[in-house]
Write a structure and sequence with these properties.
The structure holds two protein chains of two kinds.
Chain A lengths: L1 E5 L3 H13 L3 E5 L2 H10 L4 E4 L8 H10 L6 E5 L4 H10 L3 E4 L4 H15 L8 E4 L2 E4 L4 E4 L2 E2 L4 H12 L4 E2 L1 H8 L10 H13 L8 E4 L3 E4 L5
Parallel strand pairs in A: 1-2, 1-3, 3-4, 4-5
Antiparallel strand pairs in A: 6-7, 7-8, 8-9, 10-12, 11-12
Helix pairs in contact in A: 2-3, 6-8
Chain B lengths: L2 H50 E3 L5 E3 L6 H4 L5 E7 L4 E4 L19 E5 L7 E11 L4 E11 L1 H36 L1 H14 L12 H45 L9 H25 L10 E2 H15 L6 E5 L5 E2 L3 H18 L3 E8 L3 E8 L6 H12 L11 H11 L3 E5 L7 E7 L4
Parallel strand pairs in B: 9-11
Antiparallel strand pairs in B: 1-2, 3-4, 3-7, 5-6, 6-7, 8-10, 11-12, 12-14, 13-14
Classes of the chains: A alpha/beta, B alpha+beta.
Chain lengths: ~230, ~450
Amino acid sequence: MRVLVVEDEAGLRRQLQALFGAHGIEATTTTSGREAVYLATEYPFDMLVVDLGLPDLSGLEVIRTLRERQHDMPILIITARGGWQHKVDGLDAGADDYLTKPYQPEELLARIRALMRRHYQLPAGRMVLEHGPLVIDLDQQAATLDGVPLDLTHFEFQLLGYLARNAGRVLGKDRLSDYLHAGEEDRDSNVIEVLISRLRRKLDPDGRLQPIETVRGHGYRYRLGRS
Amino acid sequence: MSLHLRLGLAASAMLSVFAALLILGINTALERHTWAMLEALLKGRMDFLLATTSVDDRGRVQVHHSLLKTRLRLPGSGEYARIFDQKGQLLWRSPSVLGLALPLPPPLRPGQFHYWRDPTGGTALVALSLGIGWNTPAARFPLVFNVAVDASDFYARSRRIQHMATFMIATTVVVALAALLAVLYWGLRPLRKVDQALQALEAGRIKAIPEDQPHEISRLVGRINSLLRQERKLQHRYRDSLENLAHSLKTPLALLRGSLPARRREDDRKQAEYLEHLDRMDQIITHQLQRAGTMGPSTANVQTRLAPILDKLLAALGKVYRDKGVACEQRIADDATFPMDPSDFMELAGNLLDNAFKYCRRRVAVELAGNDREAVLIVEDDGPGIPVGAREAVLERGKRLGSKMEGSGIGLAMVHDIVEIYGGRLEIQDTPLGGTALVVFIPRRPR
């Protein structure tokens, strides 16, 4: 899971990155509202965690701009401003939930999981995708095939998770590369092909499942989990 | 007493006094005029009598009948003439006096005259008596000539004129009064409009009084609007400062909290102690800033329309608790108002509804009740409820600064603060939905 964190306080930003990292969540951070809009527009993120009081563009404007541009990712506001007017304004602008500082780390993680479950229509209380014999546990960063744990690298799991959460949609190589390497300039264009090829081998050794389909000229489509 | 009534009464009183004085003046003038006419008539009759009278050397009076006016010849005709000697002895009378007992003239020296009218008002008779020293070649005879006429016709004519004048004046006064009241109504219309605008302002329907007013009150309206703008600006600045303060205090708290390991071991007493202190600091800051930010009852007696605020809150809560699929019944009329500052009501209702959404199973209801003395806001849910025996304790905990409100939501302390600042009270009651009904009573101030 990849989260864009917009927080202008350096200490909190580092803490959030460390907290997310410890729970298998890739976090890209920024201090600027304008940069947040740019990053969220250019790169795919599963979620936006945004502080309202930012130096350039306010958190509310970031949310409004992204919603106007048809970004449907879940948005969680974290702010020191706890009044109901701010909550109502934030949710009205397009956020999905609201957390007041100082928050408990467990509470923050629970809210993020709940928003993810809601967005990707995951079963209540679990961050798990069950697609036939393939079970992907987004929380534990682990997958099983017919109950047997799969040996996946970090990138392989990230890619599988992203494809599975967007089952049925055609995702281009650039988009997949943006997801795995958000904000990084130096990339190898063959990495995605190599990762897809490895995933196919590991998920479907005997060729009966065919979980990832190649859509010529467009990209890849995850076929399980969508009728 | 209203300005309109005050000016109306004063105008009515002035016009009535003016009309009464006018009628009195006209009546007096008319009466004088009538009497002057009667005097002239009597003088003419006297001259005529003197002209037709002759006295011989022995003092015998003779009036030439053939020269007498017809009315003096007819008994009871209304015109009479008599001649007396100095002792009051009747020497001659006109035939018209026949059978009548006319009053005697007073004794008069030659050259003296006397006008008379019935002082009792019993008859309409008026008379003129004149003392005459009648000289003959032989002697001088002192005589008293008396003429009298019945003035009923004069009096009747005068009364008719009086009645007509009174009627005309009364009609003029009524028409003038109606016109004056219409002018007052029209003239005071801008003030009534300002009053209506103030009511709309208090009800939260408008933000300022329209300034297109007559120049006499436009300055006053401008000043009121400027005061209102200044008050709002001050309020916003005050709130902004409080929010900045909250931000400055809570960010380091969040840093401190985040710097502690995420999972604390049960046996790590020091860490538990730190966390407790941090929580307590957070609660104190939240509580005190909330309390300081509560506007409280204002001099403007603000009435807040509930529907727009509740719609926003319910939309926001519907989003946060979307997974729960809460059905919220809003039993509040679109134009219903609550005697509370809008931002205070937002905090009050936000906390109450958040509580209800958090603890309900599927249903929440919000309702407005009350009377002229107090407004009652009821927020109900179908959750597990609070047992009767525990309600007092829950409310008591809400009163204490920064208490943890397990099972009833931490917002209850804030609700309690706002209710207290407005001089109201908070109760926990049963509800037909089966859970908890939090009932807020806020006194309405008399207008």
